[in-house]
Amino acid sequence: MLSMVFTAIFCAQAAWTYSSPPSGAITQCTLSHISTSRPCTYKTSRFISSTLAAGTYTGHTLISRSNIKIYGQISTADSYTGNTVTLTNSLSADDARSHDASGAVRVHGSNIALYNLNIVNSLGEDQATALSVQFSGYGLKIVGYQLVSGPLAATASSNFRRDTLLANVGYEFIATSYMEGNTDFIFGQTASLWITGSVIHTLGYG
Q1: What is the pLDDT of residues 8-27, one digit of tens each?
Q2: Which residue positions does the secretion signal occupy (predicted)?
């Protein structure tokens, strides 16, 4: 079953050019949204998708529905270094009363795809989750993103960046991305996680 899931993920849609929605999409806004701070939402037969214009979006992002794709505008398609969209929050697990609740982005739906986003919990202290995945289904796909617990432009001397990625349950695929943290910063309970072509940057003692 797992191999079938990853086969489906690998065959999924390639990176979008970010100048127009994918072919066949039913657009629910004008493409002028991509030059503003408002998201542009459109539908295909299977997915509801949203594009985010360049900028920093502060606050919790909870994805509770299934079959959602979120694309960030990029300056180059070659690398996550071309990402121009940051989803950020600053909250510790202690204050939120759980690792999941502290997440800047929380995935509670299945068949979710995130493209070219910087996801940051900027607190810079112990146990502050950037991305939390909690749905026990199939097919979370993440491509071309930067995932950081602490400031995005952090230096290697910062040693308090725990719990960056909470891959708690479900099947998850991460490609051509960057993850940074310190001390068990990729963790979870029963998830199956496939990471390929990505950078895992350990700060401090790891």
Answers
A1: 333 333 344 444 555 555 44
A2: 1-19
